[in-house]
Amino acid sequence: TSADKAGFKHYMLKEIYEQPAVTHAAFEDRIKDGLVDESAFGEQAAVIFDQVKQVQIIACGTSYHAGMIAKYWMEGLAGIPCHVEVASEYRYRPVVISEGTLFISISQSGETADTLAALRDVQDQILASLTICNVPASSLVRESDLNLMTNAGPEIGVASTKAFTTQLVGLLLTTLVLGRRFKLSQEKEREIVALLAQLPGLMEHAIKMDGSIEEMSQAFAEKNHSLFLGRGTLYPVAMEGALKLKEISYIHAEAYPAGELKHGPLALVDKDMPVVTVAPRNEMLDKLKANLQEVSARGGELFVFAGCSQEVQPGEGIHVLEMPEVPEVLEPIVYTVPLQLLSYHVAVLKGTDVDQPRNLAKSVTVE
Ligand code: G6P
């Protein structure tokens, strides 16, 4: 009923707007004296975490994109060796599992058939299992040694939004508790925990871009193809943005790491293929700017999401959408929001069934 939608036209939009609150719920009870309280992961957490030598992440769909971002955090912030793979590949190939592997499954529903099968298959070869999940009574939670609930509340829209950003919060907390056993200093952990307090406000700020994104969506509604570019943790964010657009607006969208542009997709770019870029604030921005020039030189229309201190000049065919200044570690969480809004508004313009896209299911419990 429309009452469940709390006045919103679609569940998806309601769920996008819930993100300031639910990303807060994903960390608020897990912080003690400025550090992450690892007992939130389960009674055995400390004993298990002490023995972890590397991490294997398994997931499907949007949850897989969360896993890709976690890999950048685990290895980049904390020096934890981390592999990530989609469950449907992992479960059907012979795998080598090193000693001390913590198997992390990420799943909104906790019932995805491939993810569950992957866990069951490796059960006796791993150190332990942890699931980052949104449904407490689910199979993955029941069958994993440890769990961290994402606290997003029920997600109805088939296109996942708040489940993803809360998974990211959970994965960041996981990086911090494991990182203590690797290269992450307590000082750095305190610093990141303090930054987390800014997250709900930053999510709120990103949601306020709704009006300008609705305007931007008009440039996509009549197109058949689009390209999403990002670097670092924003590469998986670009993948997630492209997935959202495919899922609900039925526009072909492809994501590339910005550095790969010249190795293929540049040949496709013309005025009929809009390019969306999520620009990092770090040292790689200059390289990305060079890539952007290649696109605009070919008549491509560019939409750049960038922090206001970044010197990306709007110009002929280059639109700059100003983001709030975001601490680097929170970028993938905050930059996800405008891409969710973009896919939403394009779908509304096209008149598709936003909450129930054709051929897709909320939870894929059979193969
Ligand atoms: C389906 C849903 C996606 C979801 C994926 C994995 O494809 O439509 O939104 O990301 O399954 O689901 P899970 O519940 O395991 O996160």
UniProtKB/TrEMBL annotation:
Transmembrane segments: none annotated. One of its GO terms (biological process) is fructose 6-phosphate metabolic process. It comes from the Bacteria. GO terms for cellular component: cytosol. It is found in: Cytoplasm. The gene is glmS. It is an enzyme of class 2 (transferase). The active site is at residue 362. Homodimer. GO terms for molecular function: carbohydrate derivative binding; glutamine-fructose-6-phosphate transaminase (isomerizing) activity. Catalyzes the first step in hexosamine metabolism, converting fructose-6P into glucosamine-6P using glutamine as a nitrogen source. It catalyses: D-fructose 6-phosphate + L-glutamine = D-glucosamine 6-phosphate + L-glutamate. This is Glutamine--fructose-6-phosphate aminotransferase [isomerizing]. Its EC number is 2.6.1.16. Residues 45-184, 216-357 form the SIS domain. Keywords: Aminotransferase, Cytoplasm, Glutamine amidotransferase, Repeat, Transferase. Its main location: cytoplasm. It comes from Neptunomonas marina.
